[in-house]
Design a protein that fits this description.
By secondary structure, the chain is of the alpha/beta class. It is 47% helix and 14% strand. Strands 3-2-1-4-5-6-7 form a 7-stranded parallel beta sheet, sandwiched between helices. Helix 4 packs parallel to helix 5 (151-171) and helix 6 (189-202) crosses helix 7. The two termini are 28 Å apart. The relative contact order is 0.15.
Length: 259
């Protein structure tokens, strides 16, 4: 399927690896020029070079912490006007309710709620002026069904979901759509970290922890960055203009809900 976005320009955050890279790869395959951001310069450069070689698109890289005000300013200055925004940032650490104090919640909110909002605030006006734009926020299946060990993430990402629910409906008449893509467990570094926590707490191997989690997923496997990226690219396409303010699960059926 031709996504109809060749020649567009996208800012993809936290895109040197994992789900962010999957989204960047899929957009590049559709002919979209990229502005890629991540904290680690080496991995970001390697990924950008691979994408340029594979897809022949223009790729600009900015190594900066997108969750910090100065880093975000650097990224936005380098990105300029973009047609597509994919927000993404690593999730807070797992734990239990008694582990977290005010500063933990502030940090989680800064990374997983306020940073995407700041990026949208900066980039939506020009999308509205051009009467076309796409925003996809990578959030989590936890906004549909909370994950007890991820209370910080549950709170921050659900706050972002509420913001998007209202904002998306305000900009839709200008040809701009905002949607959230909710990953379940995917074969990324985040999955290794979460499985490592289970392995340590239960005294089992990392492989056993992964097998235990896979057994709870109807498709009996972890997702891949490639299939997640394909879903993101479709939401950014010309074919998705009637999809507004939705929270789309990409979780292999793991979230046990009717709606």
């Amino acid at each position: 399927m031709d996504l109809g976005i060749a020649g567009k320009k996208a800012l993809v955050c936290a895109s040197s690896k994992g789900l962010g890279r999957g989204c960047a790869e899929a957009l590049a395959a559709a002919g979209v020029d990229l502005v890629m951001n991540a904290r680690g310069a080496e991995a970001l450069t390697e990924t950008a070079e691979a994408i340029r070689a594979a897809h022949g698109v223009t790729v600009t890289t900015i190594a900066a912490d997108i969750t910090a005000e100065d880093g975000r300013a650097e990224v936005l200055a380098a990105a300029g006007d973009v047609d597509i925004l994919v927000t993404n940032a690593g999730g807070p650490p797992p734990g239990v309710w008694s582990d977290w104090g005010r500063e933990d919640f502030i940090k989680a909110l800064d990374a997983n709620m306020l940073t995407p909002i700041a990026l949208m605030t900066a980039l939506l006006p020009k999308m509205i002026d051009r009467r076309w734009g796409r925003v996809v926020n990578i959030t989590s299946q936890s906004v549909k069904a909370p994950i007890p060990a991820l209370g910080l993430s549950n709170a921050a990402r659900t706050g972002l979901t509420g913001y998007v629910a209202g904002t998306a409906r305000q900009v839709a008449s200008h040809g701009v759509t905002i949607n959230n893509l909710l990953p379940g467990i995917h074969a990324t570094d985040r999955a290794v970290a979460l499985d490592g926590g289970v392995a340590k707490s239960e005294g089992i191997t990392l492989e056993a922890a992964r097998a235990k989690r896979e057994a709870t997923i109807p498709v009996r496997r972890y997702g891949t960055a490639e299939e997640f990226g394909a879903a993101c690219a479709f939401l950014c396409s010309v074919h998705a203009g009637f999809i507004v303010a939705q929270n789309i699960l990409a979780d292999g059926g793991a979230t046990n809900a009717t709606i």
